[in-house]
């Protein structure tokens, strides 16, 4: 079933968002990604650690979590974890809303992402520019991910989607932490928590910033091709997720496909 699915989806060809693969309806690759992390002691420990930090605060009692601490814990997890774990959690291929909701929840958005008020995107951008970590990570994201619309290639970096996904991952835990906006699996959208409504005469400038995320061909193609490769793994038993089997899968694939699996 899995192999049929992979050959149907056409490994690394660029496909529209929300590629279909009916045979896989029953698997939840985001759940599988969490299980794979739990099988590695270090991944399990660090994941539990950021989830605990980001879940502190009982909203029914009016308590709020510390976003700052949550961001720090997320950065620690994502900086330390091999993409084999972190990218699988962040970019798991979903074909159900349940799966996509789990993917949206990966970074504990109630603490790390959502706030009562949605700031204007230009305001958020300004806050980011004033912080050296955020500023440099945003610059890195733009260098590896941003292509102006209507250009022939999809990524600036020799179509290196993986570099884009890594740069995207490093934005999580900064002021402009991006996330999936909802639990849509067929037409997912990624955005920082901000809006361009009410920007007045700065609306165009604001939309240009927002499009770095919402209209990003490198990010969406990279996510889609990465998701497709990961789909291959969703039917494996947890035992077969060892680094060894990932490596052998990598060897079976040629060219740019190989490094997506490492
Ligand atoms: C956990 O994963 C890391 C790679 O991120 C690896 O270096 C380490 O050996 C793994 N630990 C175990 C116990 O498998
Ligand atoms: C961004 O995407 C929207 C909707 O998909 C489209 O209307 C708009 O023209 C795009 N903007 C750019 C700069 O590509």
Short structural description:
The chain is mainly alpha-helical.
What topology does this entry show?
Blueprint: H1 2-9, H2 29-38, H3 41-55, H4 67-80, H5 83-90, H6 97-105, H7 109-112, H8 121-129, H9 132-145, H10 161-171, E1 178-180, E2 190-192, H11 203-214, H12 217-233, H13 243-252, H14 256-261
Helix pairs in contact: 1-12, 2-5, 3-4, 9-10, 10-12
The chain binds 2-acetamido-2-deoxy-beta-D-glucopyranose (NAG) (2 copies).
Task: Describe it.
Residues 30-111, 121-218 form the GDNF/GAS1 domain. It is found in: Cell membrane. Its main location: membrane. Belongs to the GDNFR family. It is a lipid-anchor; GPI-anchor. With 262 residues, this protein is mainly alpha-helical. It folds into two domains: 1-23 and 236-262, no CATH class; 24-235, GDNF binding domain (Annexin V, domain 1). The protein has 14 helices and two strands. It has helices at residues 2-9, 29-38, 41-55, 67-80, 83-90, 97-105, 109-112, 121-129, 132-145, 161-171, 203-214, 217-233, 243-252, 256-261, and strands at 178-180, 190-192. It has a two-stranded antiparallel ribbon. Helix 10 (161-171) crosses helix 12 (217-233). The longest helix is centred in the last third of the chain and has 17 residues, at 217-233. It starts with a helix and ends with a helix. It binds 2-acetamido-2-deoxy-beta-D-glucopyranose (NAG) (2 copies). One 2-acetamido-2-deoxy-beta-D-glucopyranose binds next to loops.
